[in-house]
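Whiteboard transcription, Tuesday session. T.W. wrote the structure tokens on the left side:
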């Protein structure tokens, strides 16, 4: 078969979930499939390409704007592969016109439909036009969780027989992180024990409640002689201004550290040295940071909603993300109960071991083969 893959997301320097997914699944496909012929399309050459097989060719077609719908559309109209794989939501407008080409699109979440208030009007419009149209126009969809599959059926009207669930994996760098407390202290800005959040800073991540819960937990932990800080690592997203402001309003701005985007090589150490990883997001299509934290040995607190229980299994402390008191109680328990932290740490190792990119690639290849 001749398989085309849109790797344009891999050119992003500060990668987040969808960019990491694209990179990891392509790398794993390269390891697993020496038989089919691949064309990897991009608008600029990624600086970090994984090892590629002799059966893979990178086709760089530059265009600063509207690359997907102009350049990639034109390319597949003129030279269609047997299958076009889009790892992140947006199918080229011209792709459905190629009758003899199957199209497979990975949909990561429908958060803009579940929590529209956490997105700007422009963002909601763009996501509706791109994601829902792509989901309806593609030959087949990969959903990254059963929760996302359910949302596609219920909210976007997609037939369930057109959707296959393929879970993410965990990158190998998270499985045996090197102990480097000094590097963690440098990122955190001190040597205090710390609760950690990793992800884009935006309302859907529930960070205002996390900060409010941390303020309450800090007062209770002070009586036990424990004085942790809260580290929020990730680049700023839309509607993020009120998140930092809330820490100042509560008088704890000095105990809430916004670390910004943390480089990939530093993340394993940051997870490993954390007192606990706190991720009670309102909605996640998958929740990759939960698995990363588990693989690094961080005890995890997360939500009992969307895909997060599906990912965490029995290896995390789960709470109602709308209940600030429950988040507070979870943080206090994790800070005070070393036995609980150790139990969650061991369960987390076992849970994360079940998710590999090689398995993800094998299941993805089955979908591409139809």
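and on the right, the sequence the group agreed on:
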């Amino acid at each position: 078969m001749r398989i085309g893959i849109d790797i344009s997301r891999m050119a992003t320097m500060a990668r987040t979930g969808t960019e990491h997914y694209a990179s990891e699944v392509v790398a794993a496909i390269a390891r697993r499939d020496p038989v089919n012929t691949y064309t990897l399309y991009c608008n600029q050459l990624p600086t970090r390409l994984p090892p590629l097989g002799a059966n893979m060719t990178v086709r760089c077609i530059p265009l600063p704007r509207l690359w997907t719908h102009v350049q990639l559309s034109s390319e597949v109209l003129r030279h269609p592969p047997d299958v076009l794989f889009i790892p992140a939501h947006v199918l080229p407008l011209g792709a459905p016109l190629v009758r003899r080409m199957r199209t497979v699109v990975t949909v990561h979440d429908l958060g803009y439909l579940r929590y529209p208030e956490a997105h700007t009007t422009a963002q909601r419009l763009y996501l509706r036009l791109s994601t829902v149209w792509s989901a309806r126009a593609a030959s087949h969809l990969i959903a990254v969780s059963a929760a996302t599959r359910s949302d596609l059926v219920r909210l976007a009207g997609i037939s369930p027989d057109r959707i296959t669930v393929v879970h993410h994996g965990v990158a190998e760098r998270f499985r045996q992180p090197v102990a480097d407390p000094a590097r963690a202290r440098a990122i955190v800005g001190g040597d205090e024990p710390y609760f950690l959040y990793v992800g884009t800073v935006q309302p859907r991540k529930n960070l205002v409640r996390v900060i409010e819960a941390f303020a309450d937990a800090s007062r209770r932990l002070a009586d036990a002689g424990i004085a942790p800080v809260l580290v929020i690592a990730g680049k700023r997203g839309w509607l993020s201004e009120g998140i930092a402001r809330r820490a100042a309003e509560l008088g704890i701005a000095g105990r809430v550290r916004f670390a910004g985007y943390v480089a990939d090589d530093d993340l394993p150490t940051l997870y490993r040295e954390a007192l606990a990883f706190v991720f009670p997001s309102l909605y996640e299509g998958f929740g990759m940071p939960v698995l990363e934290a588990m693989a690094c040995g961080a005890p995890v607190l997360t939500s009992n909603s969307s895909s997060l229980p599906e990912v965490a299994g029995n290896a995390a402390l789960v709470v109602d993300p709308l209940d600030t008191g429950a988040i507070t109680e979870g943080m206090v328990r994790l800070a005070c109960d070393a036995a609980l932290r150790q139990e969650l740490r061991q369960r987390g190792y076992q849970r994360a071991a079940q998710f590999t990119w090689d398995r993800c690639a094998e299941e993805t290849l089955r979908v591409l083969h139809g």
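Someone added at the bottom: The chain has two domains: 2-169+356-369, 173-352.
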